[in-house]
Amino acid sequence: MKISTKVEFGIVALADIAIYSVNGETVSSSDISSRQNISQKYLEQILVALRQAGFIRGQKGSRGGYTLARPASEISFSEILNGLDNNILADTYVSEDDTDGGLRDKVNSCIWDKLNGYMREFTAKMTLADFIELHKSESEENDGSFMYYI
Amino acid sequence: MKISTKVEFGIVALADIAIYSVNGETVSSSDISSRQNISQKYLEQILVALRQAGFIRGQKGSRGGYTLARPASEISFSEILNGLDNNILADTYVSEDDTDGGLRDKVNSCIWDKLNGYMREFTAKMTLADFIELHKSESEENDGSFMYYI
DNA sequence: CAAAAAGCCTATTGACATACTAGGAAATAA
DNA sequence: TTATTTCCTAGTATGTCAATAGGCTTTTTG
């Protein structure tokens, strides 16, 4: 399954902000850009989307940047996915003309909508904090001073 | 999640062939086209793909058409999906340059590949015969003479 | 044998989405 | 006031999707 860079970078950016915005410090797009190796201009667009979706707060001006708008433990992946991509967790839309009770309807209702249900279930359970915890515990170069904001 | 018409029509075509090719009779693309309301020319391309993937056999010439190459109970949805779309069940590919052990890797390995695993699990269990049975049992206009090949 | 019926193959096209690049306006802190 | 940063808009190259179209090949049938 193909994952768009917009979603991928969006998640990475959120995690980066969660990890590095300790003590209310802001994280700038150039910080994230260099740390995560993402084009800054492209990243900025994604950050705007994340702000509009209510996940982060932006602080303009010198020494500005981003902080999480909510604790990472209260941001689920299903919310993030819906905020960045209004297709990936959506059920298949069948136009009224095609609802003929035939095989096409059944494929959509029995296969795809069911798969979407599984995806929603899994992504609803997992939070940004879970993901960061997973990343932290599996990272071997962890020197003990690894800090993150939950 | 978006489903391509190629995959959707491919499944419908397979089901249609399974249902209507009783006693070794063939099912022509024009039969499927009119029954399922799919452009015949487009359908033909999909049928070629289904034949090349080994799901159906084509019989050329007058009175020709298609039959299943294997029993519907031995055709899983994961096989069909892989035959029609080499992306939908595939794990995210990460180029060697990007395997830096950072957050991007983790997003792919912990989220997407896991989701793919669930999808593969579900689609591997379900067969074409299961789907047809489901369709048959839920179709209210069933008059008892409904026949299909398993 | 000829003609019709079917599968089979390839090329082309319009629409749309993706993944950026680019330029600059607005706000804010130093 | 100047540097820094977010924020907004436009453009663009590339690729995929969903067909449409034309015609060749094979096989049955009259």
Molecular structure report:
Chains A, B: Keywords: DNA-binding. Chains A, B: This is Transcriptional regulator, Rrf2 family. The structure is a homodimer of 150-residue chains. Chain A has 150 residues and is mainly alpha-helical. Chain A has one domain (5-141): Arc Repressor Mutant, subunit A, CATH 1.10.10. The first copy, chain A, has helices spanning 5-20, 29-36, 40-52, 77-84, 103-125, 128-138, and strands spanning 56-59, 65-68. In chain A, a hairpin with a 5-residue loop joins strand 1 and strand 2 (65-68). In chain A, helix 1 (5-20) crosses helix 3, helix 1 (5-20) packs across helix 6 (128-138) and helix 2 packs across helix 3. The longest helix of chain A is centred in the C-terminal third of the chain and has 23 residues, at 103-125. The A-B interface holds A 1-3, 8, 11-12, 15-16, 36-37, 77, 87-90, 92, 98, 100-104, 106-108, 110-112, 114-116, 118-119, 122-123, 126, 131, 134-135, 138-139, 141 and B 1-3, 8, 11-12, 15-16, 36-37, 77, 87-90, 92, 98, 100-104, 106-108, 110-112, 114-116, 118-119, 122-123, 126, 131, 134-135, 138-139, 141. Chain A binds a DNA duplex (30 and 30 nucleotides) through residues 4-6, 26, 28-30, 39, 41-42, 44-45, 47-48, 51, 58-66.
Short descriptors:
homodimer, 150 residues, mainly alpha, Arc Repressor Mutant, subunit A, two-stranded antiparallel sheet, 2 strands, 53% helix, 5% strand, elongated, disordered C terminus, DNA-binding
